[in-house]
Request: fold
Amino acid sequence: MVIASKVQNAQSQLGESLSREWADDPMAPALWDSLQLLKTGWHSGLSSLEKLADDGSALAMMRLGHIFLSGQYGIRKNEEAGENWLRRSSDAGSIDGRYRLAKHLQINNHDKSAIELYESLSNLGYAPAMFVLGQAYYSGDLVVKNVDTALSYFRRAYAAGHIHAGHWLSHILMTEGKTVGAWLRGAAIRLKILVPFVRLTVFRPNSDRCRL
Reply:
């Protein structure tokens, strides 16, 4: 009961999608134990985490990917191992694993592969991926610039509750809109997101609604 309570408390501090993954993973209590072991002695904790991953826990795979890519807990960085674990996590159905993999590929200039992953997440309704695609099409950094496509992704992300997408949507409407009506719609969106933005930033900074 104590472990279950700690797991539930940890879930409440996560983004909505990752929290659901914790709730749906039958190995969540064992995963929690493994993460605690990592804090005291990474050899046993890492071995325990790898066993959970080999037993099919997409969350354990995702955590291993993050650990090897970041060097968390003093473990030597290993990009090949980290990427491999994130791919396994993504293939096993982890939204967070796929999003982290897309970010990793983007950082390492594998733009086409990153965009494909973001698009697959967008098709699953994941608002942070829609937001990233909106930014990509608006800036032209990862794909050919297309403001109309950027607006489409920002609108979808905003409809799904993404606060930063609302900001960018209002910015484009107010600065590039060709009518007074467009400017007014942008201004209305900016006013509407002000209070939720402050509330999320202060109380739910890890929410999917403000994930970048």
